[in-house]
Amino acid sequence: MANSSASTYQLIEDCEATNKVLYKLYATVVIVIIILALPLNASVLHLFIFKLKFWKSHTNNVFLFNLALADALLLLCLPLKAYNFIQGRRRSGNGTLCKAMLFMLFLNRGASIAFLTVTSIDRYFNVVRPGRKNVLRALKKSPEISVLIWLLLLPLTIPTMLKSFDCCKSHKHDKGGTLIKVIAVMYNLCHNVLDFPH
């Protein structure tokens, strides 16, 4: 019994920031990022949707729109992160909220890397190797590639919901509930949206 209460105390201790002044500085930096990034990201999304009409072109604009979308989704997580830092915590003490935050952070990090990569590949083949028709033709399917990237990233980031992360108060392994829900959502997505056979 004493061992159990000691480990619970250790988990609570792990959630607390060791240097509260430093975490207040982190919170200030995150708040400045939110203040600067929110209007800039909103203006970029507005430009892509209303001015460039990115969905009509099969060019790099689709990849860049998805990159901006991933950044906007990441911005949604930052106010909670700033709040935790102000409270002197490294992460949220709520297990579900902590897992959702980690999932969003990993998903958007992966999306940013993937869309920067395909944008770079597209630029490379358009500028340096314009004679490569097969690669250029494949990259013209940018909406399909974008959907594929998002669909691949979802199952790749699911382990962040299943693993026990530091300070999530979920230090026991998932008994399968989260995994079953994720598999059901992915099945419904593939079956209904992409019209895959049974």
TrEMBL record:
Spans through the membrane: 26-50, 62-82, 102-125, 145-162
Recorded superkingdom: Eukaryota
Annotated keywords: G-protein coupled receptor, Membrane, Receptor, Transducer, Transmembrane, Transmembrane helix
Domain G-protein coupled receptors family 1 profile: 40-198
Membrane topology: Multi-pass membrane protein
GO MF, one example: G protein-coupled receptor activity
SUPFAM superfamilies reported in the protein's UniProt record: Family A G protein-coupled receptor-like (SSF81321)
Cross-referenced Pfam families: 7tm_1
A GO CC term attached to the entry: membrane
Keyword Mitochondrion: no
InterPro entries registered for this protein in UniProt: GPCR_Rhodpsn, GPCR_Rhodpsn_7TM, HCARs
Subcellular location: Membrane
Chief location bin: membrane
UniProt record similarity statement: Belongs to the G-protein coupled receptor 1 family.
Protein name per its UniProtKB record: 12-(S)-hydroxy-5,8,10,14-eicosatetraenoic acid receptor
Organism: Channa argus (Northern snakehead)
Upper classification of the organism: Eukaryota, Metazoa, Chordata, Craniata, Vertebrata
